[in-house]
Amino acid sequence: MDNYFAVTAPGLEPFTARELTGLGFQLSPSSFQPSGGGILFKGDLDDLFRANLHLRTASRILARLGSFFYATTYPELQKRASRLPWERFLSPGQPIVLRLTCHQSKLYNSEVVARNISAGLEQRLGKACPLVKADEAAGGHPPQLIVVRLVDDKCTISVDSSGELLHKRGYRLAVAKAPLRETLAAALLMASAWDTSAPLLDPFCGSGTIPIEAALMRLGIPPGLNRRFAFMDWPGYDPQAWAALRDQAASINDSAVSVPPSILASDRDAGAIKMAHANAELAGVEDAIEFKCQAVSSITPPLGPGWVVTNPPYGVRLSQGKDLRNLYAQFGNVLRRQCPGWNVAVLCNDPVLLGQMQVDLDTSLGFVNGGIRVRLATGKINP
Predict the structure, then answer these.
(1) What pLDDT digit, counting tens, does each position of 92-101 carry?
(2) Exposure class string for 38-67: b at 16+ Cβ within 10 A, else e
(3) Domains identified in the chain and CATH numbers
(4) pTM, two decimal places
């Protein structure tokens, strides 16, 4: 069993841990630490494929290159790096990107650390792997990301298996203002406790990320179904094994597809609705979502109760200097009038705006969205 690390955005660790457990993965005893940046788990190569295919809230999956080791001199660092099984993940001469963290260690010079890691790698493979920038490619091969952490003289080396960040599902080619990352949208849906079969309403849908992620969850479509991954360039990659996993995951329940849409997405911006519909079509879920161009005051929810999960505008993101209190007050009025008994989850950074809704909300859950600290306010709508 190998050690893998699912990297997450701040605040998403509990949801990634829940996903991993639901997929049957074995979490390491010390894997979960609040704000630890991710979850450590164990598995084989097929499990690594499955994690990349199915995880909705992780940013990337790293494969630990052996266990950590201590190094206090550069010759020692090179020697220990040369003993790692690089050949499992790299072909000789493949370009690499090194991402280094050196903290409270005797080896603090990142450039010298990079040279010694690279020399150890060359010693093991018998041929140098050229160091390039992340956006470069050499010989037609994409560069392989290697993550090196030196903390308190303890060195951990990992190989990225994902390539592009996992929030890039391959469906969002059009974006509205202040787009929400797909991984965070999936976490909002999980945090709201939406049961995937109840009606869902997003009255500020923008380019459609929340409703599209909801439709993918409802239909059981894995987020990584239509994209490529870095592990596809590894020497041990088995295309047939990947194809079998992908084909199995692509078997969608026909009864789920035939259910009339009860995911409603709306926005007053006609351009945003056009983008959202195009993205849903690319994701293959356009028939599972009903899109409408309308103001929040015009929403008409389906028979419920259900869930309202949304990411409305807030000042730092879109309307610097513009007073949005009336919008939130109107939103609260509409919810009480149109959605009594429904559950609500609203992503916002401003408690004053949330207070205008006059809905009893729990704001204990925090995330980071586009570098801004935000709260997911959840509650039950009373008339």
Answers:
(1) 999 999 999 9
(2) bbbbebebebbbbbbbbbbbbbbbbbbbbe
(3) 2-160 (3.30.2130.30), 182-224+255-380 (3.40.50.150)
(4) 0.92
